[in-house]
Amino acid sequence: QVQLVESGGGLVQAGGSLRLSCAVSGITLSINVIGWYRQAPGKQRELVAVITSGGNKNYADSVKGRFTISRDYAKNTVYLEMNGLKPDDTAVYYCNLKVPGALGPGYWGMGTQVTVSS
Asked: Which residues of the chain fall below pLDDT 50?
């Protein structure tokens, strides 16, 4: 059974940093695509960052230069390092795993709340 468990969220002041973790079990990271998404109240879920099986990384324009996605194969965990946080970054952050070639939305975690105070 595939499970994704996010952690590392919390309350931080503007300009601060957080590191989110997404621990994956039941499937290997090495051949899959992992993305971090976020959803703020009243808004649609949006893609924040993604890392492919080949190691390519893409970021939303709003977080470029501030957020970094990475993965640790040994721990089967994906990270999102967030620096220079802004109140607009406040949201529930979710990780998502997609198997290349498979249909459907992939696997989702339950999310972790990030709140940035001004």
From this structure: none
